Amino acid sequence: MLRAAIESILLFLLPFLIFAGYLVLRLRYPLEIEHWTRGRVATLALIGLAAVLVGLIALGLTARRGKGVYIPAHIENGALIPGHIE
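RE: above sequence
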């Protein structure tokens, strides 16, 4: 679950990082406020949200699904048998 959250955050931030890289390549200081207008930030946020949505759909379509039945942990002959999938 943590991996999916980190991937989503990185996918959202990716357009902002690409734009900052573009500013650096154009020899502009990326932290100046004039480069980050409301329209640009909104556009980058929408692109980031679209990337997160595509990533979550791809994760849902390609994720491994457990096949079998989960057997919870139980005690058998005095020994603890951990939960597993059969």
